Amino acid sequence: VKYNQAQFITSAPDISKLPPDTGIEVAFAGRSNAGKSSALNTLTDQKLARTSKTPGRTQLINTFSLGEDQRLIDLPGYGFAKVPLEMKKKWQKALGEYLQRRKCLKGIVVLMDIRHPLKDLDMDLINWAISSNIPVLALLTKADKLKQGKRKAEVLQVRRALAELNGDITVHAFSSLKGIGLNELAWKLDEWYLGP
Ligand code: GDP
């Protein structure tokens, strides 16, 4: 799949405004500031997603086309400290609906800062995905911030913790800055879009 040919389709305020539920979608999700926009931009070699957005703005589901009925989905970041409870609930509902109802969703990439992974909302998301039989690729972002030994230890620890959930979960270190894990990301996406 040629990720550098990704093209913006639309920004949807909720799942009813998404493109038709056909073909294959892969969604990116993570706490705000986890490095999701940077990962999407690095993968596609384009400035697709805005980095470091102001928290609390209208949260939209951004969709990008990769070709014949293959889409990348940029789900709104979660976990903003200052967002009102109402908005949090709304977002959780939209996320839950997307995960549970979207038939073309083939896999979800969950981005977590390698220095503080597996927060409550990350676990909610991963558990939702597993209970909906959606494979998960967990990317431990900003891996360049840790020395190699610590980085490997962190990956192993997250792998061990997630293995207990008995789902289809893959864990890799990732850095947009240094290109760490970029091949692993593209291989997993290729598997989801094209089959094993
Ligand atoms: P988003 O809110 O999840 O979309 O996160 P962004 O992509 O906007 O990144 C949040 C912050 O983390 C920004 O200041 C980025 O420059 C920084 N960041 C993102 N990826 C990396 C990375 O691979 N390494 C380092 N050191 N910083 C990163």
TrEMBL record:
A biological process term (GO) from this entry: division septum assembly
Keyword Transmembrane helix part of the UniProt annotation: no
InterPro entries reported in the protein's UniProt record: G_ENGB_dom, GTP-bd, GTP-bd_ribosome_bio_YsxC, P-loop_NTPase
SUPFAM superfamilies, alphabetized: P-loop containing nucleoside triphosphate hydrolases (SSF52540)
GO molecular function: GTP binding; metal ion binding
Names of required cofactors: Mg(2+)
Gene Ontology cellular component list: cytosol
Residues in the signal sequence: none
Keyword terms of this UniProt record: Cell cycle, Cell division, GTP-binding, Magnesium, Metal-binding, Nucleotide-binding, Septation
CDD domains: YihA_EngB (cd01876)
Start and end residues of each EngB-type G domain: 22-195
Role of this protein: Necessary for normal cell division and for the maintenance of normal septation.
Family to which the UniProt record says this protein belongs: Belongs to the TRAFAC class TrmE-Era-EngA-EngB-Septin-like GTPase superfamily. EngB GTPase family.
Name this protein carries in UniProt: Probable GTP-binding protein EngB
Organism: Pseudoalteromonas peptidolytica F12-50-A1
